[in-house]
Amino acid sequence: MKKIININLSGRVIPIEDAAYESLQRYVESLRRYFANEEGRDEIINDIESRIAELMNDKVRKGAAAVTEADMAEIINSMGRVEDFEASDAAEAASATSNPYEPNFSYGTTGNKTRFKGRLYRDRRDKLLGGVCSGIANYMNVDPAVVRLLFAIITFGGFGFGFFLYILAWIILPASDLEGYSGKRLFRNPEDRMIGGVAGGLAAYFNKPSSTIRLIFGAPLLLNILIGVLDGIFSWGDWGNGPGFGDIFTGSITGTFILAYIILWIVLPEARSPYEKMEMRGERVDVNSIRQNVQDRAQTFSQEVRDSAMRFSSQATEFANTRGRAFATEVAASARPVASGLGHAIGVLFKAFFIFIAGSIAFGLFITLLTLIFGGGPALSPIKQGIMNFGLDGFWQNAFFWGTLIFFFAVPIIAFITWLVRRLMRVRSNRPYLGWTFGGLWTLGWICIALLASSIARDTRFYRKVEQPVTITQPQGGRMIVNVSEPEVAYSGDLWWEDSDARGWDITDDSLKLANVKLRVSASNDSNYQVTIWRYSAGRSRKEAEARAQKVQYAVSYTDSVLNLGSGLGIDKTSKFRGQKVLVEIKVPVGKKLRFDESITDKLEPMNVRVRVNDRRNRDNWDMDWDEDENFDWETGVDYVMGTDGELAKLLPDGTLDRNNTNSGVYEYKDGDAVKDSIRQSTEQEVRQRIEEKERQLEEERRRLEQLEKGTTRRKPAATNAPEPATIPVMPLFPFLI
């Protein structure tokens, strides 16, 4: 039974057989003799011991109970023996003497194990599950990590098909102890990292620029975003519903590349040590390469020291004045501990997700702004028509609007895209000219948006209304019906961003139509129905506001007891939209009826706009609060009766009045069958009580007249020669009695 001991080599505790430990000691001593006259001998020996400890720990990590003598021989062969170095040095000297211009390359030995090229095996020495991937990698002479990644991608992307292939190969392939892979290995590159270092590691493995690898990963996603945005703007797609993140992620190519990157990020180890970085670049890690690496580091360090010493004196003042802050930032960044493990991966994943989402939104907004500025697509037509034709008035408002669009909105988007591209391409500059340029342009955008808001606010400084009485004939039967016979106002174009019908508004190049119409019902002062149209608008002055209100187009007709309202008000291109509204006031005589047709709720969609004007500029001190906080419980297809107190009451089928359905004032309707809060009531009993009170007063006056007449008759015979008394005027009392 072989004796096993634990040794501490370069900070690693490793179990090793006694015979293998003796081989290690002999090898290290031979190296000390070989490098006895070498500059930096101790550093070279320490690096070699660290590499040996790393290889030995890798053997234990893969399942070995201890490092055996055979394992030690394999490690020594991979590192190179002193005899091989001496023979190589003699060959180099002879070659340099015969042909000094011929390049010379040194390769270490590959070990004494046989590579099985004629048959495929599973590797028992380097396995995670069954050794299938390492066996295939040995057969193809590639890094086992590459084969494992391919199986993982096939498994996750092919609904478990890779797992089925792995189990099948595990059953079929025989197992054997295969030679370990000693070529170029695949790592994540921490020195060329944007998110996880995957693209940098692949670039080092395939000897390609990292920007090319990043472009390969990002091109399908960017192309999918671009196609989706253009599809929504120009309606190229069959659905016409516009782009969405769901459509972006469901693309097969995009999803595969994102999944591949995530798997590479999880599976690939990071090249932390100098030897792993050498393996990542394809450099063989042996005694010669370690010696060369140490010598290069020493030479670089000495050169840096000399250069720093020469520059220190001349740059001390500049550093203190101008570079102190930058140096403090760099020191803080370099002193920050490098996070590792799952927490770091999650944090970087959130960072990548944020960059992706922000970049996608910025890119989509940039495309939208381009199409809005340069014209494109029917989808943005109503926005352009509403802003340009009916929102902006005059040269300066147009100038301020374009300044806001370009400098306030476009500049930050372009700045963010520029920052994102520079970050992806790892372009850094110590001169902040881009920041100052974008900052100055954005400040100009703030000025434009402030001036635009101020100009539009001046356009709505005064709010006026104009009155238009409607000529009607009194309805027969004492009932008026209110309906809307015109077609409902709805947008006639095509909007991909609007799933339902765009109701309540329509816009063309020359006109804007809104269903912003409200009704007000009150008691008439006489026995006649009366209808009045009130048009409202804002303006820079009272005269301008009244002129705009006069131009509001709204038609009302009356035929055979039916008041036919228009479905919406029209605004022409020259008037612009400045809060135009229409209020139809209906005055109903006491005791007469009013009925609302269901077309009122189907076609009119008034906006809830409250404007209360009570300041010094409002000479009339009129109130534009149309709701007046009194909402009306009303229904369509039923009759309402106007009471003497100006309140409506619902007429029930049995001829009585509903005590819980009375109101007066403004009748606002938001939904088709919505019912408002009930308020003060006017009932049939109240009307009867008032009639009875009038009749009682009339009866009392009649009795008083009778008493007066009787008294006059009794006094007549006593004064036959007296003149005839004056007659008491009775008729003037009748108006009071009535």
TrEMBL record:
What domain of life does the native source organism fall in?
Bacteria
Q: Which residues form the PspC-related ToastRack domain?
A: 514-625
Topology of this chain in the membrane: Single-pass membrane protein
Q: Does the keyword Nucleotide-binding apply?
A: no
Q: Does the keyword Membrane apply?
A: yes
Write out the annotated subcellular location.
Cell membrane
List the transmembrane segments: 149-173, 215-236, 248-268, 352-379, 399-421, 433-457
Question: Where does it sit, as one GO cellular component term?
Answer: plasma membrane
Q: Where is the PspC-related transmembrane region domain?
A: 323-459
What sequence ranges are listed for the domain Phage shock protein PspC N-terminal?
119-175, 184-271
A Pfam short name: Toast-rack_PspC-Cterm
Q: Main site of residence?
A: membrane
Q: Which UniProt keywords apply?
A: Cell membrane, Membrane, Transmembrane, Transmembrane helix
Residue ranges for the region (Disordered) are 706-726
Q: What is this protein called?
A: Phage shock protein C (PspC) family protein
The protein's organism comes out as: Cnuella takakiae
The major lineage groups are:
Bacteria, Pseudomonadati, Bacteroidota, Chitinophagia, Chitinophagales
